[in-house]
Structures are given as C-alpha cells and as structure tokens.
Amino acid sequence: MTSQKIKIFIWNSLHGALPVGEQFAIRQIPLPNQCPRCRAEESITHALFTCPFATKVWDLAPFSLTFHANLVENTLSGLEASRKIPSLPPVGLAAGSLSSWIVWSIWLSRNQLLFQRRDFTPEETVTKAITDAREWTLAQNHPTNVSPGQRMINLEPNPNRQAHSSIFIDAAWNPSTGCAGFGWIIDDPVTPSQHAATETFVSSPLMAEALALRQAIIFALNTGIRSAVLHSNSLSLIKMIRSKTFVLEVYGVLHDIFSLSNVFSFIKFVFVPRAANDKTDSVAKQALYALNHF
After folding, report:
1. Hey, is 81 helix, strand or coil?
2. Domain, as residue range, for 108
3. How far is residue 73's CA from residue 78's CA, in Å, rounded to a whole number?
4. What are the residue boundaries of the RNase H type-1 domain, all occurrences included (predicted)?
C-alpha cells in the first residue's frame, strides 16, 4: 500500500519517464548524463538501485532479508524483488510497502543534491522513507474535510458557468528546510471541501507549486471528479502547462500532470491572482507550519 504520487513515480520509472542522464542522451538533450553522486552514467536503475549511495540506503533498510541492490539488472526486477521482502515487525508497515517509499526517498535525495546542493546521508534517506510511509499509512484514516455546504471561495454568479468543479491550489515553501505545504480547495456547490498535504526535500517554490497541482489532480481523480477547472496563482507554472514547456527542474512533475490530465473529460488550467486565492494560501501555510512544528 502506497500513495498515488508514488504509484505514478514507479510507473514513470518503469517506462523510462524519469529525467536521468541516460534519458537526456537518448532524447538528445544537451545536459550531463552522469550521476550527480558517483559520476557514472546515470540510468534509472543506477539512480534507484546500483549507485553506491542507493545501495547503502537499501543496505540500511529494515528488511527481514538482505536485498542486494548492487546486483539489480533492471528497474522492474529491482522493484519486484524488493517488494517481496517483508519489513521487520517494529517498523509497523504492511508487507511489501516500504520498498516503494525507499525508491521515492532515494529519488528525492538525488534531486536535492542536484538542484539544491543539499547532500543527505543514506541514514537520513532511509529514515525519511520509513517516517513518510508511517505518516501516510496513519493519515489514511484521518481525512481533512470541511462541513458540507460551506463555500470556500466566493465566485460571482455566472449563468454561463459549466458544471465543472473549480479547484483552487497553492503551495507554501520554506527555503531553509526544503519543506512545503500544499493546499487545495474544491469549490463544488454540492460537497465543497479543503485539503492539505506536505512534502519534504522540495527544491524550489516552482517545484512546490507543481507538486501541489499534481497532488490536487490526483485527489480529484480519486474522488471521481472528471471535469475540472484548476486555479493556481503561479503564473510561471500555468504558462508552462499551457505552452507544454518542459523545464528540467519540474520535468517529471509536469509529465505526470499532462498524463493525468488525459483521464479528465474536461480540464482547464487558469491563473488566479494571489489576492483571490488567499484562503487556499492559508491552508497551504497551515500545513507547512504543522510539518515544521510537530
């Protein structure tokens, strides 16, 4: 059992859709193809399993059996083999669930080194994987909603308004910790609600805004929404999405957003001024505050 964002990440890793050096070379993108840690040619398998850093993380994982990550031949075999190994009882996670959080944590650590020059140790990386896995598992039984019928965003009456769900999204980012809080408000006339999430190892404000948008899209799909207008006060992000411009830093997240958008029968991305998105901003800041202080 794991989160939807990690399922998407794993799907991307299995389909060669992660921005690593090998993919840059294949697509003739003029960027270095070396691993940011060991300077070997960086494939997805290397980044997640056979890089000495990744191998050390796997060695530290609290598995009941030893997983030899350095012997992994391809990403699929590595994911399948690690998923079959149970965690030790004190970890308190369902069998096979920790491995997906480990590859996700390895990837986040890699991005922090590449984009923020923050070098997390293997010990910190595996600890983050365990902590995030536990927190996500506990959170599944504690959804955050507001009372039905309470309008979150005041919209002027519009007789031509389509029957789409309006989703307002924002992110708050702490540059000193790399933590981010996400907020999204579904301004649905029937069941309006507000929701929040957090993430660590976030490289920039743009990345935070992109992650918040992806999180809101995933949530909308999981709740059955198939027609939506998504409002963000990040003008640069909205411009990227509308022009389908891929920027290296948010390449993977934008790829996810485009892929998920295909599931909707109708979807539109709209820029909204910050002043008109203040309630969502408050939700995101509260989530970030809670992450940093509890």
Report:
1. helix
2. 4-139
3. 7
4. 169-287
